[in-house]
Amino acid sequence: MRVIVREDAAGEVRRLRAQLERVQGRRLDAPVLPTPPALADLLPGGGLRAGAAYSLAPSSTLLLSLLARPTKAGSWCAAVGMPELGAEAAAGLGVVLDRLVLVPEPGPRWLAVTATLAEVMTIVAVRPQGRVSDAEASRLLARLRDRGAALLVQGPWPQAEAAFEVADPHWTGLGQGHGYLTAREVTVTVHSRRSPVPRRARMLLPDQAGSLTATPTTATPTTATSTTATSTTATPTTVTPAVPLRAVG
């Protein structure tokens, strides 16, 4: 009798799990793809999930930062409909070019191209060339779940797992009217379907090495005295040249 009860309970758990997965639109045990630690802390589940779609702000630097770690781990990635996305900028942000496929001009069948690439790529990034219906998004998500791939969309997307926003940029590196830009500090906010409260953090995107890193402090600026403001904005008159940054979007 105990065995029967356990089997019934296990079957009920499987049934409820399958029902929940259908409602949520993704597998609960979907693997977490390699994600920069600074961004993983903001995402539900601790990183990008296979079988899910993510909406991104129109930032080439953010996109390439999300592609860098998967390519270094041996995964293949693709970018569709982004003709300005350059190989030099991608390599500068750590993307392994041997595992990156670029389709700059997919034409009117861009959605079909994206779905085809999802059959063989771990991550497919796309800039939509037109409106996507809920039915089309559902079919593509089903393919992503079946293949264990993730979708990164520059722009809004139906049924997105989470949405990234980039705001409040602050560049460093210029001296008294000369020098090189060396780093950009921004606030990244993630709005998730799984959490009613957005998560945000201050980070370097990119830092002086061309990577994405969290800043030592994420405190937001507050009203300060004139003395504090002066010390904060003071810059040295001599700047050590650095490699110019290519991806600044």
What's the main sheet like?
9 strands, mixed
Work out the helicity level.
25-40%
Structural class determined from secondary elements: alpha/beta
Query: How many strand units?
Result: 11
Task: Provide a count of the helices.
Answer: 7
Give the N-terminus to C-terminus distance in angstroms. Answer: 64 Å
SSE sequence, one letter per element: HEHEEHEHEHEHEEEEEH
What value does the Rg take, in angstroms?
A: 21 Å
pLDDT < 50 stretches = 1-7, 20-27, 218-248
Defining key terms:
disordered C terminus, 249 residues, disordered N terminus, 7 helices, 11 strands, alpha/beta, globular
Characterize the structure shown.
The model is unreliable at 1-7, 20-27 and 218-248 (pLDDT under 50). It contains seven helices and eleven strands. The chain has helices spanning 2-24, 37-40, 60-72, 87-92, 110-117, 134-147, 226-233, and strands at residues 32-33, 48-49, 53-56, 77-80, 100-103, 123-126, 150-154, 162-174, 179-192, 199-204, 213-214. Strands 5-4-6-7-3-8-9-10-11 form a nine-stranded mixed sheet, sandwiched between helices. With 249 residues, the chain is α/β, with parallel strands linked by helices.
Please summarize what this structure is.
The protein is an alpha/beta fold and 249 residues long. 31% of the residues lie in helices and 24% in strands. The protein contains seven helices and eleven strands.
Topology (SSEs and partners):
Blueprint lengths: L1 H23 L7 E2 L3 H4 L7 E2 L3 E4 L3 H13 L4 E4 L6 H6 L7 E4 L6 H8 L5 E4 L7 H14 L2 E5 L7 E13 L4 E14 L6 E6 L8 E2 L11 H8 L16
Parallel strand pairs: 3-7, 3-8, 4-5, 4-6, 6-7
Antiparallel strand pairs: 1-2, 8-9, 9-10, 10-11
